[in-house]
Amino acid sequence: MRYIRYAFLAALAILLVSVALANRQEVTLTLLPSGLSNLLQLQHSLTLPLFVVIFGGIVFGLLLGFVWEYLREYKHRAAASRNQGEVKKLERELRRVKGQRDEGKDEVLALLDEAR
């Protein structure tokens, strides 16, 4: 299984390097469209190789998806945490009640009752 993973990672690396080599031409990224940038006096632009833009977009999309999922699942994690606290509290109470019930009994009989 380990060799399959290494083979997959090697194939992925070869694919990413070939995409990067095929897309080395420079592209200019601008912050705003020209009409809006002239109006707001924000004329920021950046020149990068195309593969950096492609890989950056993929990484940004993945990070955005991870954050979105983390925020979306927060209520489920909070409910699970509350339920886990309630279960621990009820287990402690059950042990206390069983201890009170078995207080005067012989230890062997208490163990037999516990096993049922």
From TrEMBL:
**Domain of life according to the entry:** Bacteria
Q: Which residues form the Lipopolysaccharide assembly protein A domain?
A: 23-94
Organism phylogeny: Bacteria, Pseudomonadati, Pseudomonadota, Alphaproteobacteria, Rhodobacterales
What Pfam families does the record tag this protein with?
A: LapA_dom
Q: Which residues cross the membrane?
A: 46-68
InterPro entries per the UniProt record, alphabetical: LapA_dom (IPR010445)
Q: What keywords were assigned to this record?
A: Cell membrane, Coiled coil, Membrane, Transmembrane, Transmembrane helix
Q: State any GO CC term.
A: plasma membrane
Could you identify this protein by its name?
Lipopolysaccharide assembly protein A domain-containing protein
Please give the organism: Pseudoprimorskyibacter insulae
Chain coiled-coil ranges: 80-107
